[in-house]
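Hi all, long-time lurker, first post. I run a small reading group and we've been trying to get comfortable going from sequence to structure in the token notation. Rather than ask abstract questions, I figured I'd post a concrete chain and ask someone more experienced to write out its structure so we can walk through it together at our next meeting. Sequence below, copied exactly:
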Amino acid sequence: MSPPLTSPASFALAPQDHAGIDHWKVDPFTKEDNPDGLLDESSFATLFPKYREKYLREVWPSVTRALKECGIACELNLVEGSMTVRTTRKTFDPYIIIKSRDLIKLLSRSVPAPQALKILSDDVQCDVIKIGGMVRNKERYVKRRQRLIGPNGSTLKAIEMLTGCYVLVQGNTVSCMGGWKGLKTVRKIIEDCMKNMHPIYHIKELMIKRELAKDPALASQSWDRFLPKFKKKNVKRKKPSKIGKGKKDQVFPPAPVPSKLDQQIESGEYFLSQEAKRRRAAAEKLEKQKEAVSASQKKRNEAFIAPKEDAGDGGDGGGEKKKRKSEVGNEDVAAMAASLKAKSKSKKDGDEKKRAGKSDGDEFIMKAKKRKSGDGEEKKSKRAR
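-- Answer (accepted) --
Happy to help. Here is the structure in token form:
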């Protein structure tokens, strides 16, 4: 009878084991483990975006050399925009084709070639997380993706340091490379970030766990008492005390608005034949055309209508207007006559002044002549003496 699983005899070492063996260690797979190679050919292909074409052409020789060492053939098709990897007769590792598939997948998601070639080693795994469909709202999705990156990439760098993984956010996917434990943590952080949970909470928790792991006394104890517990804070909005204030409370709901079909049944149009409906529609159209023509004709004729004249003695209003007009006209005539009289008077005064000035001048000239003539006669008389 075999001993129970809980007894010490169940943990006895096997004949090939020893006390210092590590059962979790993964030994490298060499050519001696599979000298005959593979029986059949396997291949994988993936598409890449147009903007990656130039970079892939530059780094493809180095990718080809790395895959050739593993016995994998690769092909870059620029016409179709695809990369293909397949096994050859020299391939001895059956899992290397899966690693090669991950390599071309990472290259198509904008991972640099030196970083992507690390996936060929046994202790490095990869995970491409699709985040495009996790959030419906485009603006909210962009904000949460930027929250994952952080200012100047600080949040992403902290996640890489704490998990030991390489993380690249590109478009609608997040490419991760590292160990299985780190990849599991990174996926949880990314999914929670897309569910509106900030990555800083996970970063704080990881930092505390890293410090606790350094203490060997806490290796066999629970760390729950040291880890922070973050509660969701749902801020409740204040609801108005009375909805629909100012409106009377109606016992019965308002009557539904009749549909087009109900209106047709009520008017009887629903029961008419197709021909009758066509005739009715044509008559309505013709009536509308006549109304439009008459309106336009009326508008044209308005230009030829003479303006209305004021009534002569037809009423008191007309007589008062005429009286006002006549009074205004008489005042204007009187003012004009007064201004003309003033002008004529000023003109007469000016003429009189001119005449007076002219007569004074003539008298002055006549006196001057008389003086000259008197002086001449005196001189003649003196000479005669």
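A couple of things your group might point at:
The chain has ten helices and six strands.
Residues 123-231 form a domain with the Ribosomal Protein S8; Chain: A, domain 1 fold (CATH 3.30.1370.10).
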